[in-house]
Design brief:
By secondary structure, the protein is α+β, with helices and mostly antiparallel strands. The protein folds into two domains: 6-40 and 171-201; 43-147, Immunoglobulins (Immunoglobulin-like). 31% of the residues lie in helices and 29% in strands. A three-stranded antiparallel sheet has the order 1-2-4, with no helix packed on it. A three-stranded antiparallel sheet has the order 3-5-6, with no helix packed on it. Helix 1 (6-41) runs antiparallel to helix 2 (175-201). The longest helix is centred in the N-terminal third of the chain and has 36 residues, at 6-41.
Length: 202
Amino acid sequence: MFGPNNTEHSSMKKIIVGCIVASTLILGAKIIFAQTKTANSTPAVSIVDITNTLYPSPLPNGGGSITFTFKIANLGKVPLNDVTVTDDHCSAMSGELGDINGNHLLDPGEVWIYTCTTVLATTTTHSATVTAYANGLKAVAVETSTVNVFDVGATSTFRVPGFPNNGTNPYTANATALIWEILGGILVVLVVIYIGITWKKK
């Protein structure tokens, strides 16, 4: 029996190259789609400002009552649900103001306002934390403010918010499995081609 001629070899090479190119393009498309989807669905929240009713004056000697105002913004591209604001020195947090469309979601571009009143006896640095959720991911932001009691002046320390903790990327965990899936497909194609060549030689 005669083996395959040059034309058959050339055709088989073209088939192999075509399969590899096609598999590579599919893999690249899947990765790009996953990254784009993740970027558009990752939640981001921030405490853009903390103020108090006495700023910049201090509380009188012995302390007194003070009300804090927290402004919360959605920095991402998806609406946030289950928004919670807490303060380690003030527990009576009010409900949100600023839900313009009344959908109970902190939409991109919206700023919600919370207030909380407490009594401070000494100069205090308090910490506010906001948590929110979207697409199974959790976003967290933290800010601090200091209130002086009978001092030169109260301060409300504000810094540019850092990047929030946006939770775990559900697509990253599947990247390795996706690559192995594509490589496995290429291997199956090559095995089928090899069997075909071997069969023709017989």
